[in-house]
Structure formats: structure tokens, C-alpha cells
Amino acid sequence: MTARGFAAFPKVKRRIATTWWGKAWVQALKDTALDTGMLNLGRRYAHAGVVGPVTVSPGRLHAQVHDDDTAYSTTVSVPVLSEVQWGRFLDRVAEHSGHIAALLDNDMPRDLVLAAEESGVDLLPGIGDLEPDCDCDGWELPCRHAAALAFQVGWLLDTDPFVLLLLKGKPEQELLDALRDRVAGPVGTRTPVVVSHEQAGQLPARPAVPATTPVVLAVEPPPGFEAADLVALMEIAATRARALLSGTLEG
């Protein structure tokens, strides 16, 4: 199983998705929400620095969200593409060298996404595609914790569209290898990405963990472990490390 881990965002005064695909993600969240009040609360939680490290894997987002001294295990699921759909998408990318160059430069061309949609491949979520789940007692869809996680993922997508491609089912290296098989000549390498974690200034947040470059986790679970169990253990370890750095974990 391949997953990518991202350091928790510290408290920020204001941050919104700025790219067209990041905004499309947030719009899908708004279209799915049944309670706009809860959605607004989730946005405030996203800015409050209470969402732990975010793990992105095919079809699944996960983070621990801290609320009233309790850490809630929160996930948002999305449909992954089939192998046939991935083939159609990669064919579209390979048809235009500009599309390949754009992806390597951390850009998601709108015409590429539209062409993929014409081939029956939906990269961006639509109404009802975001499925939240949380072990809190909230009944809303999404609850404030899942909404906070989804808003922060919109920020991640702004900087790195390969987060979306992983979420839809394919890790970066696998995608680049598949493109190399489809085109004559080298595909190239991608521009390194560092997710910007803006500091909030004078807001009395929990101590912020220094921003780090996203870590790619490409691991196979040991015998007797499911992949999801291994990801959960890594997330617990990341959460404990964050608490130790911020001085909130005792003993």
C-alpha cells in the first residue's frame, strides 16, 4: 500500500484553496454538506490547528482531529478510478507533451481534466463523492471534524495535484512509469514540492510543529497485518510525535 503523510498545519488566520482544482474540491464538499452551519464550523477547525498529520492513500484521507481534549479518528473516502479509466486518462496525458510538462510542474490543466471527463474519467469529486466518517457522536454529513480535514486537503491539492491522483488510486511513481511506457523519450522529473504551512501571527494556538516536506510512505505490511492497520499505526506514531514536540504529551 502507498500512502503519503503530511505534517499537521499550525493555526492560521485565514487560508483558502486558490487553484481551480482546489476550489473544485471545496465546492464538492459544499455541495455534499447537509448542514452549512456545521461546514462553517469545520472551516474554523481547519484554521484552528486542531487537525493532526494528514495521511493520503488511494480512496482515503485520514487524520486525528482534536476537540475538547479528545482525538477523533476522522476519514473522508472518495471513489477510485478503475484500471480501464486510468488507461484512458494516461492516454489523454500522453497525447500532449504540454500536459506532461504541466503535471511535472505541479499544475493540473483544466483542458486535460475536461478531456478526461469526455472519456468517462472523473478526477474531481462531484456531489456525493466525498464520504465522511468519524468516531465522534455527530450525525451531520460531514461532521465538523471531517469538514476540517476536507478543507485542509483542499490546501494540499493547491500545492501538489499528485495528491489528488494518489487519492484517485495511483501513486506518483507508478503514474510516471506508465507515462514513460506511452511516450517516446524521457518523461522527466517532477519539481520538488514543499507544502507551505503559514504561521498565524499572534493567535494563541497550541504550539505549532515546524513544517516539513511531505514524506512518501511506500511500504508493504508485515505478515499478519492489514495495510490499513499499518497506516493506522503510522498515524498514531505521527500524532504522538506531534504531541511530544508541542509539549502536550506527558510521560
User: Would you tell me the structural class of the helices and strands?
Assistant: alpha+beta
Beta fraction of the residues?
A: 5-15%
Characterize the overall form: elongated
Mean of residue pLDDT values: 79
Q: Please give the largest β-sheet.
A: 6 strands, antiparallel
Helix % is 40-55%
Q: Using DSSP, what is the number of strands? A: 6
Radius of gyration: 18 Å
Keywords: Metal-binding, Zinc, Zinc-finger
InterPro entries: Znf_SWIM
Pfam family, one: SWIM
Protein name: SWIM-type domain-containing protein
Descriptive terms for the model:
251 residues; six-stranded antiparallel beta sheet; SWIM-type domain-containing protein; 43% helix
Write the layout of secondary structure elements.
Elements: E1 2-6, H1 20-32, H2 36-47, E2 54-57, E3 60-67, E4 70-77, H3 83-95, H4 97-104, H5 110-118, E5 131-134, H6 144-159, H7 162-167, H8 172-182, E6 215-218, H9 227-246
Antiparallel strand pairs: 1-2, 1-6, 2-3, 3-4, 4-5
Helix pairs in contact: 1-6, 2-6, 3-8
Keywords: Metal-binding, Zinc, Zinc-finger
Domain SWIM-type: 119-154
Protein name: SWIM-type domain-containing protein
Task: Describe the overall structure.
- With 251 residues, this protein is α+β, with helices and mostly antiparallel strands.
- It has one domain (14-196).
- Helices cover 43% and strands 13% of the residues.
- It has helices at residues 20-32, 36-47, 83-95, 97-104, 110-118, 144-159, 162-167, 172-182, 227-246, and strands at residues 2-6, 54-57, 60-67, 70-77, 131-134, 215-218.
- A 6-stranded antiparallel β-sheet has the order 5-4-3-2-1-6, with helices on both faces.
